[in-house]
Specification:
elongated
């Protein structure tokens, strides 16, 4: 397998940080998980990192 570039490592670190940020604000609803998997561009845009978090509708 090819080596992972520094840019790819940074992206993976960002996705990991975003995932752990999502865990800080439960509940993890199906739509939240779908967004985090189906729209990885939100990770690139840093919308899952502090100070942002997902809040479910009531």
């Amino acid at each position: 397998m090819p080596e992972i570039t520094d840019f790819q490592k940074r992206q993976l670190d960002q996705i990991k940080a975003g995932y752990f940020n999502l865990l800080e604000y439960p509940p993890m609803l199906e739509k939240t998980i779908s967004l985090s998997l189906a729209y990885p561009l939100l990770f690139v845009g840093e919308f899952y990192l502090h100070p942002f978090y997902i809040k479910p509708k009531k």
